[in-house]
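Here's what a typical entry looks like (Autotransporter domain-containing protein):
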Amino acid sequence: MWRFGLTGSAGWLHVEPEAIDGYRATAGNTYRVSGYATYQSTAGWYADNVLPFGNQVLGRLGVRLVRPFDIANGRVTPYAAIDYLHAFSDGTNVNVGGIAFTSGKLGDAIRLSLGANATMTARMSLYGRVSWSHDRGNAGMRGWLFNAGARYVF
């Protein structure tokens, strides 16, 4: 089954890179709009492609183990997942104060996740996830992800 859509996100970022010239830390806000396409097989595996507008193209291939539980007004589905993330493009260009900077390639990573989806009504659902990513090779994402929210179908 194929699913297509748009997603928006807003987040807070705290970075502590290992710099040669000493300790550095910075924080910032991030906002993103992305298009996505997901293929999910009846056997449970899935493949995602995410295309952030003006950013790097990222693909994901993974497996998710789920166990749904019926509750009084809906269903709760906890899951465990493992994903392989691959960046298809090189770094992006960022313009700060009229000066152009080029970022490095996002790289590849392995991501482990635990989460749950809860269907409260036919139109309302809640979701939450905690993930840990580890880079593969010379570049990639490393760190923790916490994600929670609500979906409402119009």
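The mean pLDDT is 81.

More examples are in the samples folder.
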